[in-house]
Design brief:
β8 and β9 form a beta hairpin. The longest helix has 25 residues, at 280-304. This protein is α/β, with parallel strands linked by helices. Strands 1, 2, 3, 4, 5, 6, 7, 8 and 9 form a nine-stranded mixed beta sheet that branches. It is built from twelve helices and nine strands. It has two domains: 2-73 and 273-328, no CATH class; 102-262 and 338-356 and 403-409, 3-Layer(aba) Sandwich (Rossmann fold), CATH 3.40.50. It has helices at 9-20, 43-55, 59-72, 76-89, 94-114, 135-145, 168-188, 240-250, 280-304, 310-328, 341-350, 360-370, and strands spanning 121-128, 152-161, 192-200, 220-227, 255-261, 354-355, 377-381, 393-397, 400-409. Helices cover 44% and strands 16% of the residues. Keywords: Transcription, Transcription regulation. Pfam families: GRAS. Residues 328-409 are annotated as: SAW. Belongs to the GRAS family.
């Protein structure tokens, strides 16, 4: 096997995908392991695990096993430690938080400045998977930058999960988060209401009308915050992603913030049909792009975290579950089908939204954030040749765009 050392890890893994994706068997159907994998959670081993689950049609069962193991080891304290450590050592999540918070705050302050003397109410529909780590800084900014009476703020957080995923641990965590958010709001002097809504399955099946987002009537200004959540709408089902963007437009929000990871993990037309997503060509395209994206993500973790870190291990295992979902599950069932900024921008424009450029103040806040981290991180705008031009900014690791943040209004 000495010849394996002459090809890169990515080339070897793509070779395995091409040779095994459609049932070619060898050694009794077992998958060979690349000789350079250092541990069981190395990036290549994770993709091999996904390939094996695909060959044996055991993807959903494997995901349930991984999710159950995660559920047993999840507590509020472990979730909090991982989130805070991730924010401390990497801008991956805080980049989108700072950009989105800036756009939401400026939109709300515009409303407050133009409002009459009656009490102003703000409501954020939070479609994200960040366990509310975004909101303490917004609460503080709202308290300190409001000119007169501090407006009333409500946050409705929708916590989405796959139907097969255990939810007990997440529900425990969200109860604790809600209590802490309410306590912090009292300290800041912000009238505040928090509600967590647990949703199982495709985000497109969420009944937005049932959320009662206008409890304050016409005086309630609504913001919709979508952080790594729109990919929770499974592509290839009657243009569901287009329809969901249109449903957000019907809410008549003041602003919609969209933060998504930059990767082309849909087969072709993401909403055209279910059949095209599971061809050999489609699978290899998604496999190769997934290998590129997750390799960059793992590289950023490796260079940001100590080698022995429970928080890094938790993040790598989360990425591992995403990879197994991507590689082993049918396209019509995968919850990890990321798209590019260009695709999301086209969709938002088609739904009736226009991009809102981030102000220079917000851009300065993002640049200031990135200066806190190790070299290799940068912010860049979409090029003029990009169909996402004028819509948001990218977080890049070693010049490779990996996270996209944008703001939109009807």
């Amino acid at each position: 096997m000495a010849h394996y050392t002459t090809i890169s890890g990515r080339s070897w893994t793509m070779h395995m995908a091409q040779g095994r994706s459609w049932g070619e068997e060898k050694n009794g159907g077992e998958i060979d392991h690349a000789p350079f994998c250092k541990d069981s959670w190395g990036i290549m081993d994770i993709f091999f695990q996904g390939l094996f689950a695909r060959l044996t049609t055991s993807g959903p069962r494997t995901l349930r096993t991984l999710a159950a193991a995660s559920d047993r080891n999840t507590s509020f304290d472990s979730t909090r430690r991982t989130a805070l450590r991730f924010q401390e050592l990497s801008p991956w999540s805080s980049f989108g938080h700072v950009a989105a918070n800036g756009a939401i705050l400026e939109s709300f302050l515009e409303v407050a400045a133009a409002a009459s003397s009656e009490t102003q109410r703000f409501h954020i529909l939070d479609l994200s998977n960040t366990f509310c780590t975004q909101w303490p800084t917004l609460l503080e900014a709202l308290a300190t930058r409001s000119a007169d009476e501090t407006p009333h703020l409500s946050i409705t957080t929708v916590v989405s999960a796959a139907p097969s995923a255990p939810t007990a641990a997440v529900q425990r965590v969200m109860r604790e988060i809600g209590q802490r958010m309410e306590k912090f709001a009292r300290l800041m002097g912000v009238p505040f209401r928090f509600r967590a809504v647990h949703h199982s399955g495709d985000l497109a099946e969420l009944d937005l009308d049932a959320l009662d987002l206008r409890e304050g009537g016409a005086t309630t200004a609504l913001a919709v915050n979508c952080v790594n959540s729109l990919r929770g709408v499974v592509p290839g089902k009657a243009r569901r992603r287009d329809a969901f963007a249109a449903s957000l437009r019907k809410l008549d929000p003041r602003v919609v913030t969209v933060v998504e990871e930059e990767a082309d993990l849909v087969a072709c037309d993401p909403d055209a049909s279910e059949e095209g997503g599971d061809t050999e060509a489609a699978f290899l395209k998604v496999f190769g792009e997934g290998l590129r994206f997750f390799s960059a993500y793992m590289d950023s973790l490796e260079e940001s975290f100590p080698k022995t870190s429970n928080e890094r291990l938790a993040l790598e295992r989360g990425a591992g579950r995403a990879i197994v979902d991507l590689v082993s599950c049918p396209a019509s069932e995968s919850m990890e089908r990321r798209e590019t900024a260009a695709a999301w921008a086209r969709r938002m424009r088609s739904a009736g939204f226009s991009p809102v450029p981030f102000s220079e103040d917000v851009a300065d806040d993002v640049r200031s954030l990135l200066r806190r981290y190790r070299e290799g991180w940068s912010m860049r705008e979409a090029g003029t040749e990009d169909s996402a031009a004028g819509a948001g900014v990218f977080l890049a690791w070693k010049e490779q765009p990996l996270v996209w943040a944008s703001a939109w209004r009807p």
